[in-house]
Amino acid sequence: MVPGSGIVLTRTSKVPTVHYAYYYYYYYYYYYYYYYYYYYYYYYYYYYYYYYYYYYYYYYYYYYYYYYYYYYYYYYYYYYYYYYYYYYYYYYYYYYYYYYYYYYYYYYYYYYYYYYYYYYYYYYYYYYYYYLTLILIIITTTKSLLSSLLQCPE
Questions:
Q1: What is the DSSP string of 119-140?
Q2: What value does the mean pLDDT take over residues 102-123?
Q3: This model's pTM is above 0.90
Q4: What is the pLDDT confidence band of residue 14, given thresholds at 50, 70 and 90?
Q5: Rounded distance between C-alpha atoms, residue 132 and residue 77, angstroms
Q6: Is residue 25 a contact partner of residue 8, using CB atoms and an 8 Å limit?
Q7: Which tens digits make up the pLDDT trace of 83-111?
Q8: Helix/strand/coil for 92
Q9: Which residues touch 21 (CB under 8 Å, ≥6 apart)?
Q10: What SS3 state is found at 4?
Q11: Do 29 and 14 contact (CB within 8 A), yes or no?
Q12: Distance between CA atoms of residues 79 and 90, nearest Å
């Protein structure tokens, strides 16, 4: 027997034989290391793929929600400012043209009636004094003629 090895040598024949303890320990360590590496790699790949898919879906949903909220707020503020400036300029030009035409027609009718009454009164007084002067001339002339006709000869 070889001490500490589990091998027993016998001298029953000229060729030494190996005791069954050798095979026992051989298969023991064989299956020990087999299952050791089997479970080692099993759990290795198990956790590898576990963390792989974990981080895969983590970053997938991370970027999914990131871009989701990114475009959500992008289009939100885009349409917000779009309609903001749209209505801003809408009401701006609305009131601009409103007051523009308001003052335009205001001054238009203002000057229209101003010149209307101006020329109205102008021609009114013009013809008034014209006919008044004409009537006075006629009266004066008629009076002169009558007085000259009615004078007695000496």
A1: HHHHHHHHHHHHHHHHHHHHHH
A2: 88
A3: no
A4: low
A5: 79
A6: no
A7: 888 888 899 999 999 998 888 888 888 88
A8: helix
A9: 6, 7, 8
A10: coil
A11: no
A12: 15
What contacts 87, CB < 8 A, 6 or more positions away? Answer: none
Q: Please name which of 28, 33, 20 lies closest in space to residue 6, comparing C-alpha atoms.
A: 20
| Distance of alpha carbon 126 from alpha carbon 119, whole angstroms | 10
Closest to 145 in 3D by CA, of 137, 153, 134, 154: 137
Percent of the chain surpassing pLDDT 70: 85
CA 10 to chain centre: 95
In whole angstroms, what is the distance from residue 141 CA to residue 131 CA? 15
Task: Give the pLDDT of residue 138.
Answer: 93
Q: Is 65 left (phi over 0), alpha (psi -120 to 50) or beta?
A: alpha
> CA 102 to CA 112: how far, in whole Å?
15
Q: Work out the pLDDT band at 147, boundaries 50, 70, 90.
A: confident
Give the position of tokens 């051989």.
Answer: 26
